[in-house]
Amino acid sequence: MSKLRPLHDRVVIRRSEEEKKTAGGIVLPGSAAEKANHGVIVAAGPGKTLENGDVRALAVKVGDKVVFGPYSGSNTVKVDGEDLLVMAENEILAVLED
């Protein structure tokens, strides 16, 4: 994958695979399947610059599995044929712990 370095408090997320089957076993066509609202952080910026000039480090890191809202990450970029989401750290709702 090419290097994509997010700035400030932005992160780059690889969205998890879309759910293609319902809990009852019904297979959904591609257009009806909901986009997954979770993924893995593949790149992270250095942090948010505060008014006094200090940089506050991000609370998430590369490799974290995260959950985000359904309308978060509206900035999609294609890198090496793969769609990636770029979003601000404050759009992330939670980190999935093992």
TrEMBL record:
Q: Which SUPFAM superfamilies match?
A: GroES-like
Question: Principal place where this protein is found?
Answer: cytoplasm
User: What protein is this chain from?
Assistant: Co-chaperonin GroES
Which GO CC annotations does the UniProt entry carry? cytoplasm
**What does the annotation say about its assembly with partners?**
Heptamer of 7 subunits arranged in a ring. Interacts with the chaperonin GroEL.
Function recorded in the entry: Together with the chaperonin GroEL, plays an essential role in assisting protein folding. The GroEL-GroES system forms a nano-cage that allows encapsulation of the non-native substrate proteins and provides a physical environment optimized to promote and accelerate protein folding. GroES binds to the apical surface of the GroEL ring, thereby capping the opening of the GroEL channel.
Q: Name one GO molecular function term.
A: ATP binding
Family of the protein in this entry: Belongs to the GroES chaperonin family.
Entry annotated with the keyword Transcription:
no
PANTHER family in alphabetical order: 10 KDA HEAT SHOCK PROTEIN, CO-CHAPERONIN GROES
Q: Which gene encodes it?
A: groES
Q: Which Gene3D superfamilies match?
A: GroES chaperonin (2.30.33.40)
Q: Which InterPro entries match?
A: Chaperonin_GroES, Chaperonin_GroES_sf, Chaprnonin_Cpn10_CS, GroES-like_sf
